[in-house]
Amino acid sequence: MRVRAGVLLGDPMTIKRNVTVDGETFEVELEKEEDGWKVSIDDSQFKIQVEQEKFLAPKRESRSRSSSARSGTISSPIPGKVVSMHISVGDRVEEGSVLMILEAMKMQNEVAAPISGTVTEVHCEDGLNVEANVPLVVIEPPVQDED
User: Fold this and answer.
1) Residue 51 carries which DSSP code?
2) Domain count of the fold of the chain
3) Is residue 6 in some structural domain?
4) What is the pTM of this model?
């Protein structure tokens, strides 16, 4: 029997998440089972079966792609609140420069530019609550001359 960090191999693991539905927040507890998930909300339990779990854990993109192949569209991976914007349309930004501060799950996160270029679109402002996977900023890479 193998033990790692105080958990026996094969022991059930639960994950707690906050879920907001129609403006009301619930603490949800998820437990992975062989054929799906057990979901607990307050005193109620539900069983969820997922046909293709590959959609739950998408592959992460390789960091080895060139800058020209990377997207300049920045979205929040989870719902949050824009604490402060550091850019506006027309600004020139460098890859890695901080564009905004986004608060999500009571943590303030710096959102950095994935590529160098010019900010062409800004779809958020200070104090705005944003949804997950909604484009917040678009950066257009510099035009490279082809000789």
Assistant:
1) S
2) 2
3) no
4) 0.51
